[in-house]
Amino acid sequence: MPQIDHQVHVALGERAYDILVGPRLIDAAGTILAEKFPGRRFGIVTDAMVADRQLPRLTSSLDAAGLDYAVITVPAGESTKSHAMLEKVVEGLLAARLERGDLVIALGGGVIGDLAGFAAAITRRGMDFVQMPTSLLAQVDSSVGGKTGINSPHGKNLVGAFHQPRLVLADLSALDTLDRRQFAAGYAEVVKYGLIDDADFFEWLEANLDDIFAGGPARGEAVARCCAHKARVVIEDEKETGVRALLNLGHTFGHALEKDTGYSGRLLHGEGVSIGMVLAHRLSTELGLAPGQDAGRVAAHLKRAGLPTRLSDIPGTLGSTATLMAAMAQDKKVQRGALTFILTRGIGQAFIENRVDEAQIARFMDGMRNA
Fold first, then answer.
1. Is position 258 annotated as part of the catalytic site?
2. 244 catalytic, yes or no?
3. Sheet of 128-133: strands edge to edge?
4. In a shared domain, residues 62 and 21
5. Annotation says 269 is catalytic
6. 343 — phi, psi (to 5°)?
């Protein structure tokens, strides 16, 4: 039997599902899937890098369980979240003669989860899918909650659908293959949960950062606590009409920076979120909403994790403030043309503010370039 260290239930009525957290769950996937989805065929969507590291574990497990599957491999990287790669995945699922009652498996990080989930949502007007996140970022954030989609030249995640998975298998062993930069990028999303509304969790992270990075017991606990936090928010606000927007702390800034750097290796998603969260805290301080020492504490912790915290930490030359502001104006949270930011009154006290003055943000960004 597979070892399951933590189990989180996402109670969404007919769309409810479980998140299983533990070691070597990819190796046990055949047993788990055969029991939960008898008689189904599977379409595995993965990227070239994950295929090299993790795909043999999954296919061996499915073979041992006597399950039939097809594999669709796409390039690694944020640029894969594109119309062209979406077409490749959809056509691959159709070419494999997978039916509406079969399942798509998203084996990879957040890019693959978003891409494969969106393909599942639209192929044959909706197929079920299973998330098998192999990055820390995907395990604690993007694999949970049903947000799927691709990027547009106009901005990040602007084309997509809400489509909940049927199961999430968070294999802690997969995290051992990540380099420190990739792991740290995912850790930014872990920190986010503490900064939103759980100051005790942030303090726990300050005390347990080394154990989390070393792969100790705190790693599995951190993943499970983040999943439980996100599950609570998704249950309350599945379609992001209210409180779920808090999960975008740091993302308005971060997405603009990702777009400006061309969704390239210059800036990973979690690195953009890290800088964005620091900017959100510093903007809140400038607006007289939060104590300055909290912004410093957040920056210090993220820096200790090896994450960038300033605009000047991004390699190369950034576009103009006007360019960054234009990218923010395409953010999904914009309402009737008004920018919406997640601001804070201190660590663990984030809130939604949709009355932010664009000129003030532009002046703030100008100041942050030399900070």
1. no
2. yes
3. 6-10, 17-22, 167-171, 128-133, 103-108, 42-47, 69-74
4. yes
5. yes
6. -110, -175
Among 14, 35, 125, 355, the active-site one is: 125
Report, as an integer, the average pLDDT of 158-178: 97
283/157 same-domain check: no
Looking at 88, 251, 259, 333, which residue is catalytic? 251
Domain region containing 77: 6-177
Confidence of residue 145 (pLDDT cuts 50, 70, 90): very high
208 catalytic per annotation: no
Domain identity same for 132 and 201: no
| Whether residue 339 has pLDDT greater than 70 | yes
- Catalytic pick among 192, 259, 269, 301: 269
Tell me, yes or no, whether 267 and 137 share the same domain. no
Domain ends where: 121, 144, 177?
Answer: 177
Q: Cβ(346)–Cβ(268) under 8 Å?
A: no
Do residues 15 and 116 share a domain? yes
Give catalytic status of residue 369 as yes or no: no
Token pair 């664009």: residue: 358
For the domain that residue 262 is a member of, what is the CATH number?
Answer: 1.20.1090.10
- Total of domains in the chain: 2
Query: What is the pLDDT, as a whole number, of residue 54?
Result: 98
Beta strands in 36-97 (DSSP E): 42-47, 69-74
> Among 333, 328, 335, 332, which Cα is nearest to 358's?
328
Do residue 90 and residue 165 come from a single domain? Answer: yes
Q: Provide mean pLDDT across the span 135-157.
A: 95
- Tell which of 177, 208, 230 closes a domain: 177
Q: Answer yes or no: 281 catalytic.
A: no
Residue 124 bears catalytic tag? no
- Please indicate whether residue 9 is annotated as part of the active site: no
Same domain, 196 and 319: yes
pLDDT band at 356 (very low <50, low <70, confident <90, very high): confident
Give the count of beta carbons closer than 10 Å to the beta carbon of residue 337: 7
Of the candidates 132, 233, 245, 227, the one whose C-alpha atom is nearest the C-alpha of residue 189 is: 227
Catalytically annotated residue among 189, 238, 258, 271: 189
Q: Is 370 an annotated catalytic residue?
A: no
Whether 56 and 168 map to the same domain: the answer is yes
CATH number of residue 123's parent domain: 3.40.50.1970
Residues in the chain: 371
